[in-house]
Amino acid sequence: MTDLIPIGRFSRMTRLSIKALRFYDEQGMLKPLRVDPSSGYRFYSRVQANRAEAIRILRSTGMPIDEIREVLAEDDPELTGKRLDMHRERLLERLAEQERMLRFLERLIDRGEGVMPYHVTVKQVEPRFVAALRLRISLATAGADVQRGFGTLVQAVTAAGAGPTCKPFVIHHDVVDEQTDGDIEICIPVKPGTAFPDGPVRATEIPGGQVAATVHRGPYAEISPAYHYVTGWIQEQGHQHAGPPREIYLNDPQSVTQDDLLTEVQFPIGYA
After folding, report:
1. Are 128 and 208 in contact, with CB atoms under 8 Å apart?
2. What does pTM read for this prediction?
3. Which of 40, 137, 187, 213 has the most CB atoms within 10 Å of its CB?
4. What are the C-alpha distances in Å from 13 to residues 27, 29, 91, 94?
5. Structural domain boundaries of the chain?
């Protein structure tokens, strides 16, 4: 077959690495036209370049592998168009979020102190019996991980016949940044004694105690200044940190705009 193209040349032609081509082969998305039975060497056809380019572009725009596989497998142009329209909406939402973050950055830079003003209060919080799910997350996937985690928790709580008794919250056990993954614990308060079968969701009690707290109004992605302010206040007042911080979600993101989201940031404290 004269149209056979070795994987190295096909890689240069499509701007997909050999490693990526092997991965897409394993995923059933871009199979070689021929594999040498003795050497295992892969050969492609020139007509496969368009499919490779579609995969490269869709991956560069962040479409998940499973969705790309479905798009490429569709024989119905109308269904393919609908899937691409859904991805287009997702990209527009992402663009709007990035533009919002740029405006937020401009406000931070314009303010001489670099941190927006917050009011800090000290209060005693009671222990909470909760359904909890501990996750290892990265900065890049934090939002999606938390959303999926809450979905898992809600399913478990519903299956146990136990409605929430208070606002949900997340405990940040580690600092998560571009270089470092870390643990969070997603919690939904439930009645004491609520039990869950073996699985990722467990019943536990979160200890109470004294906390320094403030309320952030606005998107979750813009909450960092609240952390800056409270930690600075704790140091100025001579307190010491006594546990990982918590974010309590005071209203439902499905029922209010991002600008009206209310999140209470709590730092357990003690005296130095």
Report:
1. yes
2. 0.65
3. 187
4. 21, 18, 27, 30
5. 4-73, 74-110, 121-271
